[in-house]
Every structure is written in C-alpha cells, then in structure tokens.
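Lab meeting, item 3. Inverse folding demo.
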C-alpha cells in the first residue's frame, strides 16, 4: 500500500516511503516506513570531494579524519576534526563533517548543534538549511525541520532533493495542499520529471482529485515506463474507482517491473479475494509473508481466503500470527473468533468476540456472532443484549432482526414488552421481504 514520494536517485532520503492513497475501506491514507537506524543524512563522509587547504597541521588532521572515517573509526575522526576546528573555528567543511561524525555515533543533539553552527555561518546557503532540516527531523522537531527545508527551497528553488524531502514531510504531516503546490511548482521548472509527476499525483489523490492524480501517474509512466511506484499508484486509483479488471492488469504490470514489490503483491492478493479467486490470492499473499513476515495484514487476508476455502484451522494459525505482530487488531481478532467457531471451539470463540468488543464496542458483526453463540448456549438475555446492540449499530440488519425475534419468542415466560418487541420485529421483516420481492 505504499509508494515512493521521495525519489531514490541521489540516495535514499531520511524520510519514509509514503503511502499514496487508500485503495479500499480501512486502509490508511498515509503511512511511513522508518529509515534504517544506520542511514545517514545526505552528506558524504568527512572530506569527500573537498580540497584540503590551510596549514600543514590542518591538512594533516583533515587527512586523519578522512582515513578514520574510511575505516569506520568515528571516535578518531571526531578527534581529528575537533583539532581542525580548534585551529579554524569557522571552517565550514569541518563543522559539517563533525556533524555527520556525531550522527554516525548516534549523538543526535551534538550533530544538530554543529549543523546549526554551519547554517549560522552561511545563512544564505541552501544546503546548510537542508542539512539542518534533516538534523531537526532526526530529533523529531518536525516544525523546525519544516522551516529549514522551506528555507532551503526558498533560497534555491531548483534544489530538487530539498523540494522532494520537504514534500514528503509535508505529506506525512497531512499538509497536503502545501505539498501539492510544492510539486506543482517543481513541474513548472521541470515538466519532464517523472518522480515529480508521481509525487504530485500522490498529493492530488490525498486531496481527492483522482482524475488529475491518474493523469500525473500516467505521465510519470509515459516519461519512465519502468516507474514502478507510479504504476502501482495508478492501480490504487482503479481500485478506488471500482475498476477491478484495470486494477489487476496494472498491479500485474507493477509486479513485472519488480516481482518483490510487497505492496503490489498484497493489493493483488486482496483484489483476487474480492474476485473469489482465493487460491491465486494465497499465492500472492504467501509471497508477501516470505518477503516480510511481520506484515500482519497479509496474514489476515490469507486467513480470509482460507476461511472462504473452508480451512478454518490454517486460518486460525495465520490470525494468531497476525495478532502476534499487532495484538489489538480487531479485524484479526474477529476473524479468529469466526475460525474458532467453525472449529467448534465455542468457548474460545466467545472469549475472542468479547475481546474484540472490549476494543471495539461498535463492531456490529462481533455483537451478532457473539449473540448467536450465547443463544446456542441457552443464555437468551445475554444474546438479546448483543442482538439489540447489532441493530443499534446497523438498524436494518435482517439476520439480527430475525434472530432477535426468534430468541424473544422462545422465552417461556416472556414479558409483554418482549412479546411486543418480537411482533414488531416480525412486522418489520415482513415489510422488508415484501419491499424486496422481484
């Protein structure tokens, strides 16, 4: 369910792969995958690309820092760079390099302090503000990160990487209109940038302009036929429009470009379940699980397919796995209750439905399934309560109306109010049946 807003060329950005759009009800609109802990901001290692000037002592210390960084000895690199800065306090390159060294040592506050110093030395330097924005992001100061990235773009409108990182963070903060404007402005500078068309399409889809979003995804693919994220995003547009055939064809194209594209495998699996092709769906969902075991939604969807194929035992195993990664997932919990009920493990099923309702009291289907089990256990009062809750949440639900009427009518010493309620429900059912006659 994810796409890349920040292009890969030029090095992976510090922000996440962002989720493009909701393809089906219940999917998140925007999500993020955290960058790997060892991933650095965009700067090169100390001294890379720099000409060594200054006194022999400064040059010698810089060379020591470079050698130390090359072998991953960040403490030695720090010591050498500190000696450079002691000799030349305003050495801009050394300050930036020291900031990176601190980052590599996971000393984020010290890294931030050095990037601040660099930006103060050169306030009109867009890369200085860009690096400072990344540093603020690393310490989770999002407001300051946005301000610095905005300043980088203001100072240098054609600073592509700063613009894309800013757009990604804006999307993540739900500042979608600003992100859309940012990418639209970039396309005026470079109308043939496939990544920008893809990113602008993501922003437009978040706004709800699916037609324009689709046009920009198509343009991205026209400019770069192998732009797998744009192909994938286009498939999500088709899913939202209720065009399963086109969605399937486009997802299959994404997988031709990258067979290990987890989110395309997942979405195609979900789509095949909707189309009743459960065995094929399981093949794609198995691929997802093989690539990323801790993908609870893939376990849930595979369980759904297994239930449809009449294999509740295997479904229960998948759902238990999903709950291991996401213990409070009401969907997984509910389907586990369904699987347990199908396995005639009613006691466990009751407990499972009760857990779901403790998390989600508005889960109408859980109320209904629990009511049915309680009615079978000769607990009419408890069953009646849950049937009524089902109808409060979904007033026209026929099976709940019928079951409640039958349960009320079966009570030997029913009160006048209970008999009246049962008769009213039967009248509603009769009217419903009459209205829906062909």
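The presenter then showed the designed sequence:
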């Amino acid at each position: 369910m994810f796409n890349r807003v920040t292009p890969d060329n030029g090095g992976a950005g510090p922000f996440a792969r962002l989720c493009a759009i909701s393809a089906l009800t219940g999917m998140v609109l925007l999500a993020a995958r955290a960058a790997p802990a060892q991933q650095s901001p965009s700067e090169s290692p100390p001294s890379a690309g720099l000409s060594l000037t200054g006194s022999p002592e400064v040059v010698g210390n810089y060379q020591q820092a470079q050698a130390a960084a090359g072998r991953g000895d960040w403490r030695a690199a720090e010591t050498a760079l500190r000696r450079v800065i002691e000799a030349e306090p305003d050495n801009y390159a050394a300050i930036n390099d020291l900031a990176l060294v601190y980052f590599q040592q996971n000393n984020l506050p010290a890294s931030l302090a050095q990037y601040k110093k660099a930006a103060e030395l050169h306030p009109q330097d867009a890369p200085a503000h860009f690096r400072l924005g990344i540093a603020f992001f690393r310490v989770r100061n999002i407001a300051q990160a946005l301000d610095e990235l905005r300043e980088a773009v203001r100072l240098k409108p054609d600073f592509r990487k700063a613009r894309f990182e800013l757009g990604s963070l804006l999307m993540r903060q739900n500042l979608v209109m600003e992100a859309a404007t940012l990418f639209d402005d970039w396309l005026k500078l470079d109308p043939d940038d496939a990544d920008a068309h893809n990113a602008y399409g993501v922003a437009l889809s978040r706004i709800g302009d699916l037609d324009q979003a689709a046009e920009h995804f198509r343009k991205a693919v026209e400019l770069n036929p192998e732009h797998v994220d744009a192909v994938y995003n286009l498939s999500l547009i088709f899913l939202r429009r209720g065009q399963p055939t086109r969605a399937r064809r486009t997802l299959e194209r994404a997988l031709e470009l990258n067979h290990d594209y987890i989110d395309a495998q997942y979405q195609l699996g979900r789509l095949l379940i909707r189309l009743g092709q459960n065995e094929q769906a399981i093949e794609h969902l198995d691929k997802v699980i093989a690539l990323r075991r801790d993908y609870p939604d893939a376990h849930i969807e595979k369980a759904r397919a297994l239930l449809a194929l009449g294999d509740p035992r295997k479904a229960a195993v998948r759902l238990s796995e999903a709950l291991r990664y996401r213990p409070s997932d009401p969907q997984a919990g509910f389907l586990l209750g369904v699987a347990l009920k199908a396995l005639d493990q009613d006691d466990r099923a009751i407990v499972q439905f009760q857990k779901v309702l403790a998390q989600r009291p508005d889960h109408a289907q859980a109320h209904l399934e629990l009511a049915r089990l309680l009615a079978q256990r000769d607990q009419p009062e408890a069953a009646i309560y849950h049937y009524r809750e089902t109808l409060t949440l979904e007033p026209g639900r026929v099976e709940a109306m019928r079951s409640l009427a039958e349960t009320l009518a079966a009570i030997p010493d029913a009160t006048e109010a209970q008999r009246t309620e049962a008769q009213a429900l039967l009248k509603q059912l009769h009217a419903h049946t009459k209205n829906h006659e062909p």
